[in-house]
Amino acid sequence: MNMKTVIFSHGDKGGVGKSTIAAVMVSRIVDRAGHCAIIDGDAKTPDLYNRYAETPGVDVHAMQINYAGAASVAMNQLAELVEKSDSPFIVINCPAAAGDTLDELAGMFSEVCAMMDVRMAATYALGTKDECAGSLAESLKNGLMSFVNEKDRMVLYPVFQGDQSTFPWEKDPARPDYRGGESIFPKLEPQFVMQALEKTTGHLSDAVSRTDIGLTLYARVSIKHWLQDAASVLDPLLFPSGWNDDRGDDDDA
Ligand SMILES: Nc1ncnc2c1ncn2[C@@H]1O[C@H](COP(=O)(O)OP(=O)(O)OP(=O)(O)O)[C@@H](O)[C@H]1O
Ligand SMILES: [Mg+2]
Q1: Of the four listed, 53, 99, 102, 135, which is most buried by Cβ atoms within 10 Å?
Q2: Burial of 179 (0-12, 13-18, 19+ CB in 10 A)
């Protein structure tokens, strides 16, 4: 029996690839586990919710996680969604500035997960901007990332922003003491392919076979390879050793 998993796609502020990473996770989870729930933490522009709203095997929810001044209301709602979901995986897509809410109350959220026997995991997508320096170190010290077990957390360098050396985390004084996964998250190129992909809905892999969205064969092959590379980065976190691919037949009673 696999342990139910809740996984945060967390990261630095503004456009570092959190939603893209979450979308790759969801498709990979449905492939291997048959079902996935989504909590999109940005109720104003819920890109992940919109992508999967009509997709079989995916339950979608949207709520505001960076709820200024009312962090406990947001955390209560988040924990309640996790408590009520009967999906084997719940992907939480963090909005920009989720840290204020999450980092404050992640300890209590992790206790709730422990009470439910739910594994809590997270990716952290790094940014290259100066304002990103220190954010991960802070989260690892007191925030969400500090409540995730070493083997269940992974720092990602989304290299569409630049190569690994351009990320402040690379030279952060806290990095040598960090314990957990670290990996490069691959870039989909050329850029117009990513733009076309972002206009589609449903599983990202569907774009590989679709002929109605004006993508060349080359573009479709690029998406396929990118998804394979991204899956090999995320798989160890999503499906740790001991994870059983047998979906069982105890649901849909
Ligand atoms: N792996 C990638 N390869 C190429 N381009 C990417 C990749 N990931 C993200 N991008 C580009 O960066 C943009 C922002 O990505 P995304 O929406 O995933 O970031 P985000 O961290 O969720 O942003 P926000 O903080 O606004 O929620 C995308 O529209 C896309 O153009
Ligand atoms: Mg996003």
Answers
A1: 102
A2: exposed
d(CA 91, CA 94): 9
**Domain annotation covers residue 49:** yes
* 40 CA from centroid of ligand 2 (Å): 9
CATH for 67? 3.40.50.300
Who wins on pLDDT, 214 or 187?
187
- 84: Cβ contacts below 8 Å, ≥ 6 apart: none
The answer to whether residue 243 is domain-embedded is: no
Strand order in the sheet with 58-62: 58-62, 36-40, 89-93, 5-11, 119-125, 153-158, 181-185
Asked if the model's pLDDT at residue 68 lies above 80, the reply is no
In this structure, which residues have their CB less than 5 angstroms from ion ligand 2? Answer: 18-19
Best mutation site among 194, 223, 234 for ligand 1 pocket (most ligand atoms within 8 Å of CB): 194
Neighbouring-strand partners of residue 157: 184
In this structure, is residue 253 part of a structural domain?
no
DSSP letter at 9? E
Rounded to two decimals, what is the model's pTM? Answer: 0.96
Residue 190: give the domain boundaries.
Answer: 5-238
Contacts of 225 (CB under 8 A, 6+ apart): none
C-alpha 15 – ligand 1 centre gap (Å): 5
Asked, for residue 248, whether it belongs to a domain, the answer is no
183 within 8 A of 231, measured Cβ to Cβ: no
